[in-house]
Structures are given as C-alpha cells and as structure tokens.
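Before the break, one more example. Copy the sequence into your notebook; we will annotate it together after we see the structure.
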Amino acid sequence: MKNLAIVILLTGLFLGEVNGQVLSIGPKFGVSQGDVHVTDGFQGDDSKMGYHLGLFARINLPIIYLQPEVLYTNTGGSFSNNSFNYDVNFDRLDIPVMVGMKLGGLFRFQAGPVASYVFNSDMVARNGTRTSIVPPKEEFTFGYQAGVGIDIGNFLLDLKYEGALTNSINNFAQVPTDQRQNQLIVSMGFRLF
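Here is what the structure looks like once it is written out:
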C-alpha cells in the first residue's frame, strides 16, 4: 500500500510537469489596510496598515484553480465612542481557500472563504493604556475574500478585498460589541515549483 501511494505521488508530480504544473507551492507576503466596524455605541475610526506572510499552494484544474493559503496576519483598526478612542491589533492565522479562473495566461479572478484564528489581540487607548482583549468564545472567525491577480513567470500578484461574516470580538470592557473587520489586501507570491 505504501509503495502504491509513492507511485501515485510520483506519477502525479511527473504529469504535473508534463501538463503545465498541476501543483504549485511557494511563499506569499504582503500588506493590508484594515478597519473595524463596530456597533452598540461605538463607531469605527481610522484604518490600520497590516502585513501577512505564509505559504500558498495552487492546484490547476482544467478550467479553474484551487488556491489554499496559510498566513500569519497582523491587522487592526480603531474605534471610539463619545468618551474614548481606541486602537486594536489582531495577530491571527488566516486560512483562505480561493477558487479562481485564469483569463489567458496572465490575468485571473478569484473568490472564496477565509477562516481566521485570533491567537492574540490587544487594545491601546489613545492615552497610552494597553489592555489585553479576551479572544471571542469562538476562536475561529469566518469571512470571504474576492479579487483579481496576475501571474508573471513564477511571480504572483494579488489584490483582494476581505469581508467579515462573523464577529472578531464579542465584548469590549464588558459591553457587548459586534466588532467585524474588513480589509484591502495586496500580496506577492513566488512559485517554487
């Protein structure tokens, strides 16, 4: 059974080379401009520049491609109410799974779901007081991404919009808060093979 799996894997890799690379893997990094949309007496203020880095894999099928990614993302934004102004930062693991279609050999468009695991978050009041935010009970949040991209040789360039479907933080200072994040993402990747 083990030998059969090795033969299938090697055959798949060989056919991938022959048929224009069925599987591509490589690093990906970029920047994002994120903001938070809050309710319950708070309002979103300034957006925050963030960054991400990680790995992607692309599976090229006859008409479409599948591109799962695993990315460390640092992002955030700011919000306020009548009395206070706050900046929030999120460290999270993002797992987008993009489904896309190529237009010619250069352009492509894509969309798909993204799951995010918030493993660290904090809030800084504009007066400098830092408060750790307890992650939500549901540590995974869900959203969607959609965008366009170009492939030039082994380089990938993506421009995507991410919208939130579930809440990032359930409460702020024990006040129920629906705090969802949206961001504009620019990424560059490099296919190693």
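Residues 12-19 have pLDDT under 50 and may be disordered. The two ends are 27 Å apart (CA to CA). Try to locate both features in your own notes.
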